[in-house]
Amino acid sequence: MQFRVHADGNALGEAAAAEGAAAIEAAIAQKGAAVVVVATGASQFAMLAELVTRPIDWSKLTVFHLDEYVGLAADHPASFRGYLAERFVSKVPSLGEFVPVEGDAADIDAEIARLNARLAPLEVDVCFAGIGENCHLAFNDPPADFAVEDPYILVRLDEACRRQQFGEGWFPDLAAVPQTAVSMSVRQIMKAKTIVLSVPDARKAQAVKDALEGPVTNAHPASILQEHPATTLHIDEAAASLLTGAAR
Q1: Does the global pTM surpass 0.85?
Q2: In this structure, is the dihedral angle defined by the CA atoms of residues 167, 205, 210 and 126, taken in order, positive or negative?
Q3: 3-class SS at 43?
Q4: Which residues pair with 153 in a beta bridge?
């Protein structure tokens, strides 16, 4: 995993979008199509705003997303598929296909099976992601399962993760934050050819340090990206504030 430090969140978003767009265009040029995974949350605002302006042939894309809360309808303010409908899908009307995680499906096991059947045969060309305050990757909170091969899994959210979601203003109180979610697994994320991480803000500084400088451990799930051959971590000065001189 390599990293780049940017002056602010806007510069970070522009650089991450440019890197991801180039990888998408390369996949389309090579194969005629691309499979992409997009992330959500406050860390992705600037990246997505820039990505949707890129002159990509969106009709060639099949797009999945990383995770979704169990039990939330798409019109809930915190729904990730709702977030992406507003900030991504509606901005690129020629998009080939968006495959949402239906977190409020009546049979969540059947929904996970549907998603796994769709994604398992495919090669993901680009995965956009972030890192949580607890160093989670997607909703794989510590101690994350580094072994499960299923593309999507049901996970329980730890308190640190739930507090982050409340702190970012997605829910009125901590009790309203769901305790379970459908998440792309760590192994599935690691299968992506290119991974582009956008991680701004001082509150992510410890997680960035753990991911970059610490040992690879499921106690810091994003640390496994040290083993991925084509991951770039885009951070701003605040998120880089705890890195050692040697790392910077």
Answers
A1: yes
A2: positive
A3: helix
A4: 183
How far is the C-alpha of 135 from the C-alpha of 129, rounded, in Å? 12
Average pLDDT, the chain: 96
* Secondary structure letter of residue 68 according to DSSP: E
Cα separation of 122 and 184, whole Å? 14
Instruction: Classify strands 180-184 and 152-156 as parallel, antiparallel or unpaired.
Output: antiparallel
Alpha-helical segments (H) within 32-146: 45-51, 80-87, 108-119
Say which amino acid occupies 247.
A
pLDDT, one tens digit per residue, over 19-35 is 999 999 999 999 999 99
- In eight-state DSSP terms, residue 198 is E
pLDDT digits (tens, 9 = 90+) for 178-189: 999 999 999 999
Going through the chain in order, the beta strands assigned E by DSSP cover: 2-6, 34-38, 61-65, 67-69, 97-99, 126-129, 152-156, 180-184, 194-199, 231-236
Q: For residue 104, how many C-alpha atoms fall within 13 Å in the half-sphere facing its CB?
A: 11
Question: What are the b/e assignments for 50-78, b being 16+ CB within 10 Å?
Answer: bbbeeebebebbbbbbbbbbbebebebeb
Distance CA 1, CA 138 (A): 17
| pLDDT for the residue numbered 248 | 52
Instruction: Quote the CA–CA distance of 190 and 82 in Å, as a whole number.
Output: 25
Measured in degrees and rounded to the nearest 5, phi and psi for residue 116 equal: -65, -35
All domains of the chain, ordered by start, with CATH?
2-236 (3.40.50.1360)
Report residue 32 as tokens: 């005629």
DSSP 4-30: EEESSHHHHHHHHHHHHHHHHHHHHHH
* pLDDT of 247 strictly over 90: no
